[in-house]
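> call design_seq(struct)
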């Protein structure tokens, strides 16, 4: 059976159904899809990539590896490369988010997790697992990829989501993480000094001299933050300084690394409790 892309597996959709494909900006060739199906059924097909996703609502059913599978909300779903599978709504339909990573991409993450230079081709043992926390992490990563307004957030979230999938269902045991004071300190300094720049997880890992997976875990152990969360905190701190000077929220957003004023407002209010405009007005009135 010839492998096809997911877009080629779709037939015309019925009313009330939707499917959106997009390519993840920082992951060359990574196809992503979000869809809601009530009647659409996939024909039997294969991919040369993995299929990794989560069910948001409803229930999907599919045949794979000679077994009928069902997955509902809170489930992570997996199809290994080359596995023939179909897909159909069960009951009233389902909504899901899906990604199609290459073998090379998953093998690289698996090798980083295991603390090795290379590793064999990962394989997922089960077609679906109930993991609400993992499903929520994956959905957050997928939404960040779709918004494409904070590339480091999307990159970090997706790496964490895939690593969780490999640990829970791919037989990959993460290597232990020790104290990494020096590497973490170098990354903290970089994030502080270059908070307005478009930084990549790969660049941060190179600064630390660690793998991306090791960096995320070591950074959190040392600081309580992931690298991205620490970066947002640095940006909010810088925004407070500029707002106290009387700079407008729109200008502050542009100068501190946020994609727009709305992005600044969400991050600022979540950490300070008021909007940048209210904070600026109070500072200027004092």
């Amino acid at each position: 059976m010839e492998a096809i892309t997911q877009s080629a597996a779709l037939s015309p959709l019925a009313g009330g159904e939707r499917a959106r494909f997009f390519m993840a900006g920082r992951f060359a060739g990574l196809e992503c899809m979000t869809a809601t199906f009530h009647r659409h059924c996939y024909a039997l097909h294969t991919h040369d990539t993995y299929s990794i996703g989560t069910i948001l609502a409803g229930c999907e059913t599919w045949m794979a590896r000679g077994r009928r599978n069902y997955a509902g909300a809170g489930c992570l779903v997996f199809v290994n490369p080359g596995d023939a599978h179909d897909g159909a709504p069960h009951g009233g339909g389902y909504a899901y988010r899906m990604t199609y990573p290459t073998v090379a991409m998953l093998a690289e993450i698996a090798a980083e997790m295991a603390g090795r230079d290379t590793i064999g081709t990962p394989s997922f043992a089960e077609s679906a697992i109930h993991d609400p926390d993992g499903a929520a992490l994956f959905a957050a990563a997928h939404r960040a990829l779709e918004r494409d307004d904070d590339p480091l957030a999307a990159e970090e979230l997706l790496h964490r989501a895939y690593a969780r999938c490999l640990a829970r269902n791919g037989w990959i045991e993460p290597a232990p993480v020790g104290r990494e004071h020096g590497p973490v300190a170098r990354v903290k300094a970089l994030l502080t000094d270059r908070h307005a720049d478009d930084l990549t997880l790969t660049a941060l890992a190179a600064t630390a001299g660690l793998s991306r997976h090791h960096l995320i875990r070591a950074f959190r152990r040392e600081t309580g933050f992931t690298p991205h969360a620490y970066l947002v905190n640095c940006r909010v701190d810088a925004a407070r300084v500029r707002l106290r000077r009387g700079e407008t929220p729109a200008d502050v957003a542009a100068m501190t690394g946020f994609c727009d004023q709305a992005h600044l407002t969400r991050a600022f209010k979540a950490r300070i409790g008021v909007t940048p405009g209210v904070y600026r007005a109070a500072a200027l009135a004092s």
